[in-house]
Design a protein that fits this description.
single chain, 276 residues, alpha+beta, five-stranded mixed sheet, five-stranded antiparallel sheet, 4 helices, 15% helix, AsaB-like
Length: 276
Amino acid sequence: MASDTISTLNYYLAPLDGSRPFININADSATGKPVRNWVEDKHEMQIEDVRGKAELYTLGNAGFQYGREAAKHTSFLNDDEIEREYYPESIDLIKRVTGATSVVIFDHTVRRRLLGEPDDSPQKRQPAPLVHVDQTTSSSIARVHRHLPPTEVPSLLRRRFQIINIWRPISHAAVDWPLALCDFRSVDVKKDLLPVALIYPDREGETFGVKYNPNHQWKYMKAMAPEEFVLIKCFDSIEDGSVARLTPHTAFQDPNTPEGTPLRESIELRALVFYD
């Protein structure tokens, strides 16, 4: 039985002065640099439970796709082990689901919700309660330049490529702070997406913040288990309207979560996905 829910989602409100939105990743209060120049815009949204009808949502039409396949690697405690053991099996899975020719994983994030702890280091990454898309077009192209040999980049950029995240719960079902995904067919690409600069000490990245749109259709799979995964499209070089280009997503607090539910633990890998 489906368990749709209503929750407050945090959208982005662009700076009123028209300046480019930014986040200082390593902002230090001592330097006086602001962490960000935009504010959150909270809206109550209905989030539909797609369990039992997940096959209706694919990378091609909605921008995300659920599947079921247990990972062989299950500890997720050591970054080197994750890269050595979980990356190869995830590359294989992404290739099988998408039909891609080659897949290059460029990073991963393990998230474990910690009560009363700041999300201020890679060891303390918490569920991200902001509606966002991980990459913009320019940052997606920059990723190819950054992670692939310079001699291969021109030919890779002539082919279709995508950035896809593979997300799954760790150790127990993700009942606490689950992941919501916005069906691309309900997104107005021209009006809803707000490029946000990520300012690092040595470089800049860019993500899309997402502005509120009452037409957004939000989906989740209730109590996703570690044997289940979802592929989340963050970018597609096909931009002619024939396929979903991206998927806004966010963690959210489900008001129906029973007291004493284990805190959310999850891992996402981010992959460059190439086709012949």
